[in-house]
């Protein structure tokens, strides 16, 4: 295969096709191009279209479409925006979507009662409680009240345990999205040195477990890690999820490394005084000069999180249908 340039018309190749896979494998092996973009926005659209096709076949078979219930408590603008994006994706793919809005003053008992009703509702296969919850509500108790089979966020202790044990279950959407990006772009994981920067229950820890499952050699780092720059410089795969804008400097990145930037922060835009811009946890422009592959912010991991929510909801539907159809 001849050398490929950055002007190659990737959009002409369907992601997942044989030609696309061979082209991606060639670039990964040759490392002939620096700073290739891992386009999560385009990839998420492809995945949602794939899910839509599966839902079309489900309905054609006479079975009901998977249903996702989202609970939004309070009036946090960012939470409302996230929920809106999730609902639009659900509708586009053909899911049955239910939004339960609750006031900031909602009692914990009322929220738990709603979850109990959704747990027993046959039209609902996935339940998502948008975080953060009002301060007076025990988030851990709420998460534990969700039926593990319907826990599409992957936060229930049962699903966390399955992930830790390497068993099949529902894993957190952002963590799954990070791995899906690597797989869809045919980026080798097995045997690679992977550094996960951040130890949250939502991203850092589950991403580490998923990378281990793919046979990467995984190191977890955090704000208290000594000689952090040296750890980053040795990583073949870096997943940055520390929540600090441009914390990882571009010159820390190993030549040809793969950078998955989970962070997203709004910071002042020096080019437009009085305006802000979105950045990740990694100093993008300098990192791109060294990295073999890198996710942009925005347009990288964020859209994949929503696509993986739909994928988890379909997976939950399959689990529940299989359970209901199995001999008792």
Reading off the top of the CATH hierarchy, the class of the largest domain is best stated as Alpha Beta
Radius of gyration from the alpha-carbon trace, in angstroms:
20 Å
What string, H for helix and E for strand, traces the elements in order?
Answer: HEHEHEHEHHHEHEHEEEEHEH
Provide the helix percentage.
40-55%
What would you call the shape?
A: globular
Biggest sheet, strands in spatial order? Answer: 1-11-8-7-5-6
Uncertain stretches of 5 or more adjacent residues: 1-15, 26-34
Largest sheet: 6 strands, parallel
| Helical segment count | 11
How much of the residues is beta strand, in percent? 5-15%
Describe the structure.
By secondary structure, this protein is an alpha/beta fold. The chain has two domains: about 15-40 and about 170-305, NAD(P)-binding Rossmann-like Domain (Rossmann fold, 3-Layer(aba) Sandwich), CATH 3.40.50; about 65-155, Leucine Dehydrogenase, chain A, domain 1 (Rossmann fold), CATH 3.40.50.10860. Helix content is about 45%, strand content about 15%. The strands form three sheets. Strands 1-11-8-7-5-6 form a six-stranded parallel β-sheet, with helices on both faces. The protein has a three-stranded parallel β-sheet with strand order 3-2-4, with helices on both faces. Helix 7 packs across helix 8 and helix 7 packs across helix 11. The longest helix is centred in the last third of the chain and has 25 residues, at about 300-325. Mean pLDDT is about 90; it is low at about 1-15 and about 25-35.
């Amino acid at each position: 295969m001849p050398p490929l340039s950055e002007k190659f018309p990737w959009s002409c190749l369907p992601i997942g096709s044989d030609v696309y896979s061979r082209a991606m494998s060639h670039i990964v092996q040759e490392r002939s191009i620096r700073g290739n973009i891992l386009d999560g926005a385009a990839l998420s659209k492809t995945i949602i279209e794939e899910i839509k096709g599966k839902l079309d076949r489900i309905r054609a078979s006479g079975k009901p479409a998977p249903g996702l219930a989202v609970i939004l408590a309070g009036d946090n603008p960012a939470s409302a925006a996230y929920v809106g994006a999730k609902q639009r994706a659900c509708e586009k793919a053909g899911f049955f979507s239910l939004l339960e809005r609750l006031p900031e003053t909602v009692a914990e008992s009322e929220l738990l009662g709603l979850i109990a009703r959704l747990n027993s509702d046959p039209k609902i296969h996935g339940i998502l409680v948008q975080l953060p919850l009002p301060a007076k509500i025990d988030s851990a108790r709420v998460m534990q009240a969700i039926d593990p089979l319907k826990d599409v966020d992957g936060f229930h202790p049962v699903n966390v345990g399955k992930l830790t044990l390497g068993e099949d279950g529902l894993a957190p959407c952002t963590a799954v999205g990070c791995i899906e990006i690597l797989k869809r772009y045919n980026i080798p994981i097995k045997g690679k040195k992977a550094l996960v920067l951040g130890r949250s229950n939502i991203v850092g820890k589950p991403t580490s477990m998923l990378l281990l499952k793919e046979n990467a050699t995984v190191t977890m780092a955090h704000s208290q890690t000594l000689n952090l720059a040296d750890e980053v410089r040795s990583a073949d795969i870096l997943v940055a999820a520390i929540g600090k804008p441009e914390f990882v400097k571009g010159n820390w990145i190993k030549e040809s490394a793969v950078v998955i930037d989970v962070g997203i922060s709004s910071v002042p835009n020096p080019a437009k005084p009085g305006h802000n811009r979105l950045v990740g946890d990694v100093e993008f422009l300098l990192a791109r000069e060294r990295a073999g592959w890198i996710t942009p912010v925005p347009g990288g991991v964020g859209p994949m999180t929503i696509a993986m929510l739909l994928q988890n909801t379909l997976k939950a539907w399959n689990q529940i249908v299989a359970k209901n159809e199995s001999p008792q």
